[in-house]
Design goal:
By secondary structure, the chain is of the alpha/beta class. It has 2 domains: 176 residues, 3-Layer(aba) Sandwich (Rossmann fold), CATH 3.40.50; 165 residues, RecF/RecN/SMC, N-terminal domain (Glutathione S-transferase Yfyf (Class Pi), Chain A, domain 2, Up-down Bundle), CATH 1.20.1050.90. Strand 14 and strand 15 form a beta hairpin. It binds adenosine-5'-triphosphate (ATP) and magnesium ion. The site of adenosine-5'-triphosphate has 16 residues, from helix 1.
């Protein structure tokens, strides 16, 4: 799939921009503060309803304006759609082909987008939610039963937490329903992880990154291995009543990354962690292409920082070889190298103005 055009109004320092993007590599160049990350951020918002830089979407609107607008024509399987996102002081207006949509999940369903940015390394060093999001991204796109089940789980979790604080008498009903839903999500995650591990190891091997061989991960379901979820819920019931929330379950699931048995967080250098986080995203792209026969759009913000030339060249080449659309930023064009066979559309940003080169 691809983003064919992009129109921005009052997105951070970008007051107005209209851009036609190429089907393959699109490179945005510019000095610090010229608006490169803001431009990528706008595509990410269109695809997910969320910024990758702030949890407060209001921060995206230009300081001098009361609203910001992002709109785009996307092309998926030969069909065009117009997607629009506008945020003013009090409302968010999302439209797909001029029809209002109320759920962010509808945006996500229309896009297949993989974003690499300065916080992507949180998948290694950050809170468990970043790693859960990684697995669930793939399940959301590859398995139509995952998202409804995930919604059901969230609802049941809320109901059980409310029961822990109030009625208590119906707890066994919530325990059983939550356990059933949690076991389904858990087994979906386990099989997704097996497939993803194969892809991650392939990317490491094919790129010949010796320093990263010996990588492994261990999945923690969110309750002890030797127990069913239901039994863990029952065993923890008194503690959960005391604290007023459910302490076990897939909402506490996590991945532990190791290298030759050692904890990746402590063992790997900062640059290696960043490399590994990009490898994991490339693995997502690879599995997406193999299983769903579609290459996701890759957004790569400032790949140069902390990645040495060899790692950077090899990983970008891998993404280019998927044959899909790549939209990336760099301060210096010399930091990147593309083979002659991949046409590169170059743009330069200057104080929020975008020019085609
Ligand atoms: N809400 C806003 N309104 C106006 N300007 C903003 C807003 N938020 C950020 N800026 C400014 O927009 C400019 C562009 O920021 P951006 O992060 O997109 O630059 P960049 O080209 O990615 O820079 P770098 O190379 O340092 O990563 C910065 O100077 C920043 O101060
Ligand atoms: Mg930037």
């Amino acid at each position: 799939m691809l983003v064919s055009s992009l129109n921005l109004e009052n997105v951070r320092c970008i007051k107005k921009a209209s851009i036609f993007l190429g089907e393959r590599v699109n490179l945005f160049l510019g000095e610090n503060g010229s608006g490169k990350s803001s431009l990528l951020e706008s595509i990410h918002i269109l695809a997910t309803g969320k910024s990758f830089r702030t949890s407060k979407i209001d921060g995206v609107k230009n300081f001098d304006s009361d609203s910001f607008t992002i709109s785009s024509i996307i092309n998926r399987n030969g069909f065009e759609k117009v997607i629009g996102y506008r945020k003013d002081k009090s409302n968010i207006d999302i439209r797909i082909n001029s029809i209002n949509v109320s759920k962010l999940s509808e945006l996500v369903l229309n896009f297949s987008l993989i974003t690499f940015h300065s916080s992507s390394v949180f998948i290694i060093e950050g809170e468990p939610q970043y790693r859960r999001r990684y697995i669930d991204w793939w399940l959301f796109h590859s398995n139509t039963s995952f998202y409804p089940e995930w919604l059901r789980y969230q609802k049941l979790l809320k109901q059980r937490n409310a029961a822990l604080r109030q009625s208590k008498s119906f707890l066994h009903v919530w325990d059983e329903a939550l356990a059933e839903s949690g076991e389904i999500i858990n087994s979906l995650r386990q099989s997704a992880l097996q497939m993803l591990m194969v892809e991650v190891c392939n990317v490491i091997d094919e790129s010949d990154f010796q320093s990263l061989s010996g990588f492994s991960w261990q999945y923690n379901s969110g309750w002890p291995k030797d127990e069913t979820f239901l039994s863990a819920l029952k065993r923890n019931q008194q503690r959960d009543i005391l604290y007023g929330f459910t302490s076990v379950g897939v909402h506490r699931g996590d991945l532990r990354f190791t290298f030759k048995g050692k904890d990746a967080k402590e063992y790997l250098s900062r640059g290696q962690q960043k490399t590994l986080s990009l490898i994991m995203l490339i693995a997502l792209g690879s599995i997406h292409k193999k299983v769903l026969n579609e290459t996701p759009i890759f957004l790569i913000d400032d790949v140069s920082s902390e990645l040495d030339t060899t790692h950077r060249y090899k990983l970008i080449e891998k993404i280019v070889n998927f044959g899909g659309q790549l939209i990336l930023t760099s301060i210096d064009a010399n930091d990147l190298r593309f083979s002659m066979s991949s046409p590169v559309n170059k743009f330069v940003l200057q104080k929020g103005d975008v020019h085609v080169v």
